[in-house]
What we know:
- The protein contains eleven helices and 28 strands.
- The chain is an alpha+beta fold.
Amino acid sequence: MSLYGLTTGPEPAAKAQEVDLKVGIVQRFGEELTDQVTLKATSGDRLTVRFLSGDMKPETVQLESLKLETVMQPLQTPALEEYLVLNHESTFETAEDKANQWRQLGIEVEVVQPERWQVWAKRDVYQTPLLRRMLLQNLKAQGDTTAYLATKMVEKEPKASFVVNGFRYNRRELEISAKKNLIQVSRGANNKNPRLYAGRLRLQPNAYGTYTLVNQVPLETYLRGVVPHEIGGGAPYAAVVAQTILARTYALRNLRRFTADNYQLCADVHCQVYKGLTDTVPLADKAIAQTKGLVLTYNNELIDALYSSTTGGVTAPFSDVWNGPERPYLTAKVDSPNAVWDLSQKSLANENNLRQFLNLKQGFNETGRDVFRWRRTKTLEQITKHLKRYLKNRNHPLVNFTTIQQIQIVNRSPAGRILKLVVQTDIGNIEIHKNDARSAFEPPLSTLYYLEPIYGDNKILKGYAFVGGGFGHGVGMSQYGAYNLANIGWSGEQILNFYYPGTQIQPLSPSLVFWQPPEASSPFQLSPHK
Length: 530
């Protein structure tokens, strides 16, 4: 095995293209009036804070620390806040596919994340109540049942508030930097769990009437706050190498996720976990430095570098979990270096085969992991509560059902993932598809599961046991699987080739195809206060 954990392939890209990312490290700030964020300079340094003064002229001050709060400021006249919501989805990937379908129909849309992912009619196109209602009426005339108007009159709005030299400012935007390019950020009144971030910060409004604290940070520095928290501090080196190349590729492929809010990535599991320079790990830093600029590609395009904690013994194709075009390098594959199961002979679309597969525990990359195999039992009352919450978030017409009569898995993929599940209720059947078979209920850790009904006296249905394997969507690399392959001597390149067949490792360059947010404005340019 080579020094980099790669068997062959290009040398590290010493002159790799430098890329700055915009990462939302505090999303929806101001949702609660008690929200507080404290920013501090490191020892011997000071913060430089830029904002617009009372006469709307740029002002710059230097401080050791700055506390951000929010206050509710009355509007001179009540304002209509209204969005035409076209879809609710549990993941960005499926929301984006829905958005593309709307665009093909000639409707301008945007993908947003007020809480769950949604598709909205684009606000700067459908600007007036009349235009929004005309569109909604047209959609309903064509049989659409999901679109609706979210409308409220707003009398007050949150304003970011901070004190400088004894004077309190209420502003929508401000920029924070430091000479050492290091800023400590802590949340809450007690300043618990401070995290250190490199680069610059910007507080800016988002699409939901609140604010986002955005960290502008170089890509390779960003990876120092991602890799150890995604793969784990104790991972073997080849697994860290594989994770590093994937994390770099994932970030660049997903720069469009928060275009509606004028930043690119979040800092949690909806993107990649990012904790700044807090708890960096030397082994991860080594992998980042030695693979600088290397990304994973397919036909000279950055791959959709999806990965999860645990596959449950079989990886899933993209279309098993989300809607959208298939990715040729994301395939169904038994997650083992051994011949423990032949998918071509025993498809997991067959329920009996699936149950037999989930009874196997030895010989897999993830054997022995806590979430490799699992069983979760819930009463009908508990399942009903979870399902109602899921339906409410989606404005589903059957949200007011009273009782669940039966849950039935109707269709599976050859990799065993649930494609369609039907819940029979007292007022009608509710269809649940793909990844929502995990998010609609609390117990399942993945969509690789089967159901065992639990009966009480007189054979009355009391609940269900969810019996399955894996944790997460199961698409692409298993992080625990990578542990095992690295421990038996596989290189980082071999691990990536196993989970993403047909891909190539190559240096980041302008010729590669990767997504950029359309019409993105300059990330750190102040605009006049409105």
